[in-house]
Amino acid sequence: MTADRPGGRDAPLAPVLEQPYIRCEDVFKIYKSDELEVVALRGLDLEVYRGEMMALVGASGSGKSTLLNILAGLDQPSAGRGEVGGRDLLTTPAEELVDYRRSEVGFVWQQTGRNLIPYLGARANIEMPLMIEGASRGAARERATDLLERVGLADKARNRPDQLSGGEQQRVAIAVALANNPPLLLADEPTGELDNATAGEVFDVFAQLNEQTGVTIVIVTHDASIIERVHRVVAFRDGKTSAEIVRRTRFSREEQSDVDEYAVVDRSGRLQVPRDIADALGLGRRARVSLVGDHIEVRADDGAAAGPPPRAPSNVPPPTPPSAPPPEAP
Fold it and tell me: Running DSSP on this structure, what letter comes out for residue 258?
């Protein structure tokens, strides 16, 4: 087996590819109001494998956070198939989604105030979801202590959120999200309010937990350095996946990394040309595609207008429209 190892020797190994743990097929999400309809996801296809650590990137409004909310059980797709661990999130009843959110998935928000209870210490915040699920006080204390050690905050157990730095708060939030040992961890811009150095520390915690526990991690981020720390980056554009970036590490005398970027072909055979390539080629609404040996060539259209060919000019004048009939006498 060939393994990818992003981020150095201590980064997690790429997972063994089996059946996808997350499978999205032709997923649509449409938000409707009285006068407005917004299509956030447009036939999205995506597969994520168990134990993978990956990132979703793209412009604001491209559908990243919408997908994360669906995977978290906070929203449901309008159409298509979205599965996590064999569970179809489109057809799962609301009461089962509550159990799913409590035990099958952990979530880390960008805003630290949404992750932690402000009047509880770090350890007590982690203990809370455990005791809600019925864990004894002793078991909750043991699990919380272990998680604080894993995120490097064993000495901050009694500190309330206002006594922690922003990066420390997010590390506690990760521990809270993992309290009930979910197989899936989702994070929506977890470093959006942090400086670069602190963001790097938080990403390191994600990578270490992925390696130590095998938890599947999906992170939405705008941080360009994320490719150094994950197995795969999936780019979003207009509500669909548009490209994938895979990092491969080669071991020789010195450790070297290669980054390969792929365009995405969806289940219908549609290929999204990366924006920079489309702009460089001057691609408009149509393009010419040719099969050349073992690859295809994509060229800009020659500029011919779409629709039927123009009619030849004629010297015959157009017919005179009939005159209106005279009004009837009263």
Answer: E
